[in-house]
């Protein structure tokens, strides 16, 4: 899939990707950054990472899911979901995918200390800036206990 097919032609190409992976109940897979991480230790985020040379954003998204959480989802099953624009002109491409929670139990990499299928953003604080943007856009199940 080329840049035109992913909607980035004429715009800043994304330098990173994130995946909003939902189960069939609408919960979202969230990962907690490792406590020893130099950037935002302990913050909750979505699976994702950088785009390698020669990779399309959707290829990077599928690879990052495999590397970070051990979940395999075909590229064709990841849909464009949005773009988070950072200060300085960088942007992150977001993709959405679904799976049954029982089939997508993460095997965490060294980059994360914990994970959960979150029913809402109140379960995962603090959030990274891109995760805060994404959880604000996601249609959560109507289960807010507050």
List the keywords.
146 residues; alpha+beta; four-stranded mixed sheet; three-stranded antiparallel sheet; 27% strand
Describe this structure in words.
The protein has 146 residues and is an alpha+beta fold. The chain is built from 3 helices and 7 strands, in the order αββββαβββα. The strands form 2 sheets. It has a 4-stranded mixed beta sheet with strand order 4-1-6-5, with helices on both faces. It is globular, with a radius of gyration of 15 Å. The relative contact order is 0.26.
Summarize the structure.
The protein has 146 residues and is α+β, with helices and mostly antiparallel strands.
One letter per element, helices H and strands E, the order comes to HEEEEHEEEH
Radius of gyration, taken over Cα atoms and rounded to an integer in Å: 15 Å
How many β-strands, per DSSP? 7
Distance between the termini: 43 Å
- What global shape is seen? globular
Beta fraction: 25-35%
The major β-sheet equals:
4 strands, mixed
Topology:
Elements: H1 3-6, E1 16-22, E2 28-33, E3 44-45, E4 48-50, H2 57-69, E5 79-85, E6 91-98, E7 112-118, H3 129-137
Parallel strand pairs: 1-6
Antiparallel strand pairs: 1-4, 2-3, 2-7, 5-6
